[in-house]
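Model it.
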Amino acid sequence: MDNNQSTPPRLLTNTLATVIFISLLSLVLLSCGGGSSNSALPPPPPELNSCTTTQLQVSGGGCIDVVEINVDKNPAIDGLDLSNNAIPDLVFIAATQPLTTATGIDFNGDNNIDYYLLLDDQGKKSLHTTSSANSPLVTIITDDTGAAIGFDSGETTNNTDLKNLLTNNTAPTILITPLAGKYQQAPNISITCNSIDATNNTNYPCNALSYSLDSNIEPTFVGNGTITYGSTISAQQLSLAKDSNGNSVDGSYSLQVIARTAAGITTLTEPQTFEINSTACQTPPQAIISTTALPTTTNTELVKNTSNATSNTFVLDGSSSNATPAATNTIVSYSWQQIVLGDEGSLTEQTTSTATMKTFVTPDRVTTLRYSLTVTDEFGCTSAPAETTLYVMEDPKAALFIDSATTSTINNGTRSEPFKTINKALIAAESLPNNTPDLYISNASGVVYKEKSLIIPSGMSLYGGFNSFNSEEWSRDVVNKKTKLFISKDLTIDPTPHLKGLDFQLINNDAWLTGFDISTKLLPATASSESNIFAVHAVGEVGNAATLTIRRNTINAGDALDGNAVGTGSSYG
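Modeled.
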């Protein structure tokens, strides 16, 4: 065979097919990212909105019909109905007419914008994640029947928010603020509503509310009452008991509200009555305090709780307080206050106390307690404070009162007609059957009691630190208002240089000395070989365990004269 002979045509055809196949394979490999090129293909052009002006785009292609809903029959559109039940499924944040180029939609009822409804220049609708047309498109996800079930913003393909919204069977909850009741002026009322689906703990909006201020008209969504879209009614929308000028109008008003969800579930409230009376506080309520004190001699005097027993109590009762008119108005709150005096502070309040009645443990020492009570009625009117003063005493039946600032001419030793000096009280005590009354001595607005040596009989207690009757009804403050007592001896009359200021004699019964600023002095300060001064001197009865309690006093015995000590416990030179 000749080596230069041409290749047969059949073989040439096969060779050409092989070359073409290799070229095509190379092209396929290059298109799959082979070779040195790493660039991605450009995205496909955006899908054109082929829907009409009464449709929204469906995820995966196609359109779904939507109906503009005007809930409250005013010119503004309130939302869009996707489920063909005449109830807006997509509620607008702000009703608008005509629809603007970017309308906010609240889907979950939190009054925040979830999606935006945009209109193009042809009036076609589309949902977006922001108010910009360049933001991601949100399409409607539908089921096999074509019913709307969710939103597709490109983040998920199994969104069923719309289905959950339309199948939520939880009745809506309505909150009216403030609560129904009696008011001096018409309150600014707001109404809010939501429906929380317990299965997924999602808050869904009430897309419509209707209310009536006529007790004869029950609100509906087909003509009765005032219908509003969305899940709130503001105080500006609801003018209760106000005229055209915004002034309050007295009267009784019945408010009833019905709410509806996108699923058509409704809740109707009971009528809420608001009574407006602008003149109610012209006759304010009256606070009244009565006392039940055990043990006691009167309703204002208590025997001190010597054993500090928790069963020894007294009661303050405010249940007799009243409001006007009593037939239609009642007391709704009681405000008690203890006016803290002296060193007692707040008392122990028993668990049996109620709003109208307070029970306290009686103090274990002499003091003065003062309480005030103010009450408030249904209209919010508050009473003037009622006050009561309770005197905790050692023995209310055996008491003499002294006030050096008294202007009384009777001076019989009572709280209202006190003695002017301690010495006069001691003289009067001698004529009493048991000779051991206790002395309650005013601080006389800081005036110093100037006395000679005072002999105190056995069992007599002296209590100082009381305010004058004319100032604060004998209230006691042993810390800041001690009774000042100056006891001196005039050596020109009695040259014996010895002084016993308060001399407690043969103590055979417990006694107290509290609330005094005591000082003693010999006058004039002349030389002597021996002297002594006792600011407080006490001698107990042999074999008797009686106690003299000296508490909350300031005691200054002063300087004795030069000389030798005469007695234990005295001041000496």
